[in-house]
Design goal:
It is a single chain. The protein is of the alpha/beta class. It has a single domain (2-161), classed as Rossmann fold (3-Layer(aba) Sandwich), CATH 3.40.50. 41% of the residues lie in helices and 12% in strands. A 4-stranded parallel sheet has the order 2-1-3-4, with helices on both faces. Helix 4 links the parallel strand 3 (83-86) and strand 4 (112-114). Helix 1 (14-28) packs across helix 5 (136-161) and helix 2 (53-61) packs across helix 5 (136-161). The two termini are 25 Å apart. Bound molecules: 4-nitrophenyl phosphate (4NP). Residues 8-14, 45, 130, 132 line the site of 4-nitrophenyl phosphate.
Length: 168
């Protein structure tokens, strides 16, 4: 099983959207027996909570229902997931430092990377901006950044792990 963990700061705006979008792609590609995903925050402030109501509404408007309950990333996640996919440089630094502190080594670029490394439209900063203090429009923009990046990430994982039988 290929396991992907999406990580942001609070686990109520960006990473649960990525989890919902990626789960939808898993279903559409018929890959539920080969790939799974989850999400977590670098902070546990919103542990046990549903995503932010603006994230829930925006995702639903785009056809994705969010049911994740917030949780803080934990030591076991570093081994349990093949790929830890973060939203911004601050998340990257936090997870990188956590990894180094717990495992006395640095995570590979395959293990820990930014979601927007896969954004085909990215220019400049490769971050998914935090919409928490933003508007509905910010949530909409973030959704589409996450959606196109998740599609590209999915295609890359299908290729990497040969998850789809080749048809002749
Ligand atoms: P997220 O957004 O990291 O995308 O879930 C945030 C959620 C909550 C807070 C900050 C960012 N907060 O300060 O509580």
């Amino acid at each position: 099983m290929v396991k992907v963990l999406f990580v942001c700061l609070g686990n109520i705006c960006r990473s649960p959207v990525a989890e919902g979008v990626f789960n939808d792609l898993i279903q559409k590609h018929n890959l539920a027996d080969k790939i799974s995903c989850d999400s977590a925050g670098t902070k546990g402030w919103h542990a046990g909570q549903l995503p932010d109501h603006r994230a829930i509404k925006n995702a639903l408007d785009n056809g994705i229902a969010l049911t994740h309950k917030g949780r803080e990333i934990q030591a076991a996640d570093l081994d349990a997931f093949n790929h830890i996919v973060v939203m911004d440089e601050s998340n990257f630094k936090d997870v990188y430092e956590m990894y180094y502190r717990l495992k006395h080594s640095t995570p590979s670029t395959e293990k820990l990377f930014l979601l927007r490394d896969y954004d085909p439209k990215v220019t400049g900063v490769k971050e998914v901006p935090d919409p928490y203090y933003g508007s509905e429009l910010d949530f909409e923009e973030v959704f589409h950044i996450i959606q196109r990046s998740c599609k590209a990430l999915m295609n890359s994982l299908i290729e990497k792990y040969k998850l789809v039988e080749e048809t002749i």
